[in-house]
From TrEMBL:
GO terms for molecular function: isocitrate dehydrogenase (NAD+) activity. GO terms for biological process: isocitrate metabolic process; tricarboxylic acid cycle. InterPro entries: IsoPropMal-DH-like_dom. Keywords: Oxidoreductase. This is Isocitrate/isopropylmalate dehydrogenase family protein. Residues 42-379 form the Isopropylmalate dehydrogenase-like domain. Pfam families: Iso_dh (PF00180). Belongs to the isocitrate and isopropylmalate dehydrogenases family. PANTHER family: DECARBOXYLATING DEHYDROGENASES-ISOCITRATE, ISOPROPYLMALATE, TARTRATE (PTHR11835), ISOCITRATE DEHYDROGENASE [NAD] SUBUNIT ALPHA, MITOCHONDRIAL (PTHR11835:SF34). SUPFAM superfamilies: Isocitrate/Isopropylmalate dehydrogenase-like.
Amino acid sequence: MNDYINNATEKFAELLKKQLERAEKLNQNEDFTDFTALDKIVIGIIPGDGIGPIILREAENILNFLLKDEIKSGKVELKKIEGLTIENRVKQLKSIPDDVMAEIKKCNVLLKGPTTTPSKGDGLPNLESANVTMRRELDLFANVRPVKVPEKGIDWTFFRENTEGSYAVGSQGINVTDDLAVDFCIHTTGGCERIARAAFEFAKNNGKKRVSAVTKANIIKTTDGKFLDICKKVAEDYPGITLDSWYVDIMTANLINEDIRSSFEVFVLPNLYGDIITDEAAQIQGGVGTAGSSNLGKKYAMFEAIHGSAPRMVEEGIAEYANPSSILRAAEMLLRHIGFADKAHLLDEALTICAEKEKKVVVTGNKDGATAKEFAAYVMETIEKL
């Protein structure tokens, strides 16, 4: 037994060393990128796996249309990045191959299609999620997901911590023996503080009066407790905004409780809970195919659909019928982030008209509906009329 414990302890010590080094780096101040000061903004286009290339192609076409003058003048460049596919990642045994990461780091922002993550029992190597790796390597600490359903009074913005929690070292758990497996949850002071402050800054700048922290601090007392304590400390700097605390299990119920859900405004959550809750929220909006997602850091930002690569659709020969709305919403968030709010507004308005009001072209995810290309063409035609 001692040999098992000693072996696991050595692995744990190495993990702790790396996390302590990371925690120290978080204490170094760094300014956010000022996109207005850049001579050129490079947008990386990453197709991904499964339905990714199909839906991303349509988003790229719309970006080319909306940014045609900026691209022509050299102010904006759309840079296609190849190689972030499950086949290439398995071949190189890396969640993001080195040459792909080098190309990614040449960009300022990224628009990324969904990527496939190997799971237990699928016969693929134990590779870390490409998203998890990218968020860590580019320090994309804030996953921001807006959800709006005006007719139900819903206007939510979720700030999910992106680089810590249960996902921080998700592929580095320890099989102590055949009978005992241990995974780890990581929270740092710097990591908790910056996501909490991002949520409160958003609330302050957008006229919101309520931030809801979602944890399981009554049970996961050390890490979730730390997250909640830091949220409370940050809240002291924002006297006009109320912080309330909820456990993740009851919040899953609150989001479908029509009596109270419209009162929520801004949420701040650790990584795992944010992943779960935001998918539920997107389903209320109309499905994960309708919601975009931003992953923000101080130097880089990555925008993506919140759904997966949908291998089932590929296997069934219906990939072209995938709904591109989520990646188009992500493109709208990207435009806003880099300073083109007017163009973002056009895309937002067109998507609202096409998906919620006119509905002349409807995507169902099957052959009884429109293709991604047909829906994107409808959106483009609508933009031209605005």
